[in-house]
Design goal:
The protein is α+β, with helices and mostly antiparallel strands. Helix content is 22%, strand content 26%. It has helices at 23-30, 42-45, 83-89, 133-141, 151-162, 168-172; strands at 13-19, 38-40, 58-66, 69-75, 94-101, 104-111, 114-119, 175-181.
């Protein structure tokens, strides 16, 4: 899969893919009220006040169901990379997260509240002695690439694995949309599933 049609997966974005939930439940697990969502296309959504143009840190969320999976694309925010949010989002299911912000890209895979893989795709070495299967997949996809722009090929890899299409044209269509302030998002204690310091060793991880 190429990355030419994934301009949306550039800087200042975070996207999650969660199995078996509808967009309303995804919004709820982000901490937002699904009743506030409106069906907006990309142009209309871009007019909503977010980031530095809003009071406090406010993200734009656009979500939709594609087959068995629901995406949530976040602009002007990083909530979709927080361990508290991903623990809630992946409860009784599984979630992929790809973050790109300020030249940093991060891939995470969570299942039933547990972080199974968490790494920066452009690291020269895996972050643990026992990297999970996604480390090898991502490194192969990024072979020969240097510098910024790591998120788009990683997003393309995840979409290809899940059998989904979420290119620029697809995301430009009307999807349920809302804004959320960072202080609305889950901030519960991390507990034992994630220590906040590097990835949880995945052990024997099955790729679903």
């Amino acid at each position: 899969m190429t990355t030419e049609a994934f301009d949306w997966a550039g800087d200042q974005m975070c996207v999650t893919f969660t199995r078996g939930l509808d967009p309303a439940e995804v919004f709820a697990r982000y901490g937002a009220d699904p009743a506030r969502s409106r069906l907006l296309d990309a142009d209309a959504a871009s007019d909503l006040p977010t980031g530095q143009f809003a009071a406090g840190a406010v993200s734009l969320l656009r979500s939709g169901r594609l087959g068995d999976w629901t995406f949530c694309v976040e602009e002007d925010g990083v909530i979709g990379s927080w361990p508290e949010l991903l623990a809630a989002l992946s409860r009784s299911t599984e979630t992929y997260s790809v973050l790109s912000t300020e030249g940093l890209a991060v891939f995470q895979y969570w299942r039933d509240g547990q972080c199974l893989e968490n790494f920066e795709p452009d690291l020269e070495q895996p972050p643990s002695e026992h990297p999970g299967p996604w480390w090898d997949r991502v490194q192969e996809a990024l072979a020969g690439r240097e510098g910024s722009g790591m998120a788009a090929p990683v997003v393309a890899l995840v979409l290809d694995h899940l059998g989904l299409t979420l290119d620029d044209a697809t995301l430009a269509a009307p999807w349920p949309t809302l804004t959320i302030a960072e202080d609305e998002a889950p901030t519960a204690p991390r507990g034992d599933s994630y220590a906040g310091e590097g990835p949880v060793p995945p052990g024997a991880v099955e790729i679903l």
